[in-house]
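Box S1 | Example of a co-folding query
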Amino acid sequence: MHNIIDHHSQVLNFPGGEVKFTSNLNFIPETTEERVHCYRVLDDDGYPINNDFTQIEKEVALKIYTDMVTLQTMDTIFYEAQRQGRISFYVTTLGEEAINIASAAALKTDDFIFPQYREPGVLLWRGFTIQEFAHQLFGNKNDYGKGRQMPIHYGSNKHNYITVSSPVATQLPQAVGAAYALKMDAKNACTIVYFGDGGSSTGDFHAALNFAGVLDAPVIFFCRNNGFAISTPVTDQFRSDGVVTKGQGYGIRSIRVDGNDALAVFTAVQEARKIAVSEHKPVLVEALTYRAGHHSTSDDSTKYRPATEIEWWRTARDPISRFKKWIEREGWLNSEAESELRSNIRKQVLQAIQVAEKVEKPPIKDVFTDVYDVPPANLQKQETFIRETIKRNPQDYPTDVPL
Ligand SMILES: Cc1ncc(C[n+]2csc(CCOP(=O)(O)OP(=O)(O)O)c2C)c(N)n1
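Box S1 (continued) | Returned holo structure for thiamine diphosphate
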């Protein structure tokens, strides 16, 4: 380090660049006068504001629409299945359909997805079937996690979708490490990591951004700022102007986008990907949205926010209706095709539940495999114990779990 003070020009050559001296005792203000603007393409009525966005083809637009409707339908029916006691837990993505589907549409299949848990739409976009979702939710023997994970902890090697793990924000540093590995291997790909505003309130978020900035890791940090971390509103989480402003603190280019505008999300993520892959730089995207459903099936959000607020977001700001208005005006969808699409998807989801429910559960032995090459003595003992207990009390154990 060489701190050479240049008295003539009043600058300090300090690691990272020149620093000018000043005789003004100025603190950097804690806020800016105006909040960071939010990029959008479609107004609330689905009219493009201008032409400054990526033009998408009819086929892509229709797939975005179909997948958003599929996600919404899965949410409605799987949520009901939990209420009926057929599955133990569920999390909806209501209100965040554009974030899920349009961001996925802007990526390439070689890019790795590090989800939080409210992004099943990214997996849907990549071709994970409704039946595969249902098998996971029922934890049957066709579930790739062999029934060991909570419902909604989807994962797929085939789709480069890292398995969901509920401890909040652990995926953030992992995504940076994986992005760095992609860069070292000279791969033409990036990672994208999704997280909520609550995820940004953890230490892992800050560590991840700092490492990414320093290592020039090709990672897209995608924050779904939906206003709440369960019952904690963002106003109780941070005093900054949201999450977007935190990027600059770590030397990371950042953008704020309207998360309920599929075209804006698509365009922003496509540009972010270019920066990550061509320039080997991390990017932060903050999508402003609203969690239009309860946090999970264990939550009742009317206890901490007004029902009228939820209703307003569900209707006036619904991302699916906004996108629909746009594609209808483009002449790519009419009401007949729309109702056929919806009834078709509904049938598929109901059918998937019926099939998944009948598939037997993974065998007991699967509880003890896949961690150790040779199971240690304590696990062997536990397996013997559980088998003997079941033999003694068969009436207490489900009949669809093979021994
Ligand atoms: C480390 C950790 N702390 C607390 C929890 C409990 N928890 C589960 S989800 C959640 C809120 C996360 O909110 P956010 O990141 O904003 O995502 P959102 O649910 O709004 O999509 C919390 C606190 C957890 N799973 N892990």
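Residues 118, 166-168, 195-199, 224, 226, 228-230, 291, 295 surround thiamine diphosphate (CB under 6 Å). The chain has a mean pLDDT of 96.
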